[in-house]
Specification:
Layout lengths: L1 H28 L4 E7 L2 E7 L12 H18 L6 E4 L2 H23 L3 E2 L5 H14 L2 E5 L6 E5 L2
Parallel strand pairs: 2-3
Antiparallel strand pairs: 1-2, 4-6, 5-6
Length: 158
């Protein structure tokens, strides 16, 4: 139990460090935003909302990915340990998760009906994980194939 508690405490500390870093970034950019800190799937989780933050997401989330990586580096510099924190800005990742879960469910139904594997469009690691997790819950199997940036998920019959 104490190991679990220390993990939660460590992740909460990561969240606090990350929030301080993000507040600094918002101040430099003269932007308003609220930061919610949590722990989700054994990771520190931060959500930045409010104000006009869409440009911090960028097209297809590439600016968000860069800010997340900078925030992870800030945490690593402070703690000396690699961080796996997840950052969401303006609900981008939450919306993406919802649409990818739906895509995975629809694809699983197609695979069950046809008995044939289906290869999805290329996705980043975050997106592939959502699809793999959803497919696993449904009871089918999936695997990634190819090299980034063209790495895809293939959903296979049971």
């Amino acid at each position: 139990m104490s190991e679990e508690k220390s993990t939660v405490a460590r992740l909460e500390e990561e969240g606090d460090i990350a929030a301080d870093y993000l507040e600094g970034l918002l101040d430099i950019a003269d932007l308003d935003g609220d930061i919610e800190i949590g722990v989700e799937n054994d990771r520190a989780s931060l959500v930045l909302e409010g104000g006009d933050l869409a440009h911090l997401v960028g097209r297809d989330g590439e600016v968000l990915d860069a800010i997340q990586e900078l925030t992870r580096l800030a945490v690593q510099t402070s703690t000396g340990e690699r961080s796996r924190l997840m950052l969401d800005i303006d609900g981008f990742r939450a919306d993406k998760k919802s649409s990818l879960t739906k895509l995975a469910e629809e694809t699983a139904e197609e695979v069950k009906a046809s008995g044939k594997p289906i290869k999805l469009a290329p996705m980043n690691a975050f997106e592939r994980k959502i699809v793999h997790d959803t497919i696993q819950k449904i009871g089918l199997t999936s695997e990634s194939e190819g090299e980034d940036p063209d790495r895809c998920v293939v959903v296979m019959p049971a």
